Amino acid sequence: MMTQTPCCQSHVSLNELIYEWPAGFARFVIEIDLGARELTLSDVQLFDLSHVLGVEVKLIRARY
User: Fold this and answer.
1) Phi and psi for 21 in degrees, rounded to 5?
2) pTM of the model
3) Is-contact 59 46, C-beta < 8 A?
4) 16-39 per-position pLDDT tens digit
5) β partners of residue 13
6) Where are the domains of the chain?
7) Contact by Cβ (8 Å): 17, 24
8) Which of 50, 55, 57, 60 is nearest to 22 (CA)?
C-alpha cells in the first residue's frame, strides 16, 4: 500500500513504516468495549479467531 508523504512528497509503503504502537490496516473491525478493563487474548485465541475468519487477525488496542 503506497502513499505520498505530505512533508517531502516521498513515496512510501504504509506497511513498512515504523509505528510506535501496534497498528494495522483492515477491511473490518471487531470492537469490544469493556469500559476501563483491558481485554487480553492469548496467541491460541488469536490463531483460532484467524482460522474461523479465514484471515490473519492482529490485536490492536484503540487509544483515544
Assistant:
1) -110, 160
2) 0.52
3) yes
4) 878 777 777 777 778 777 777 777
5) 2
6) 21-64
7) no
8) 60
Q: Which of 20, 21, 1 is nearest to 11 (CA)?
A: 1
Residue pair 21/63 in contact (Cβ under 8 Å)? The answer is yes
- ∠ CA 17-20-25, rounded to 5°: 55
Residue 61 neighbours by CB under 8 Å, 6+ apart:
21, 22, 38
**How many beta carbons lie within 10 A of that of residue 46, not counting itself?**
14
- Nearest alpha-carbon partner for 44 in 52, 36, 33: 52
C-alpha cell read off for 35? 469500559
One-letter amino acid at 6 equals P
Residue in 33, 26, 34 with CA at minimum distance from that of residue 57: 26
Q: At residue 17, what are phi and psi to the nearest 5 degrees?
A: -70, 155
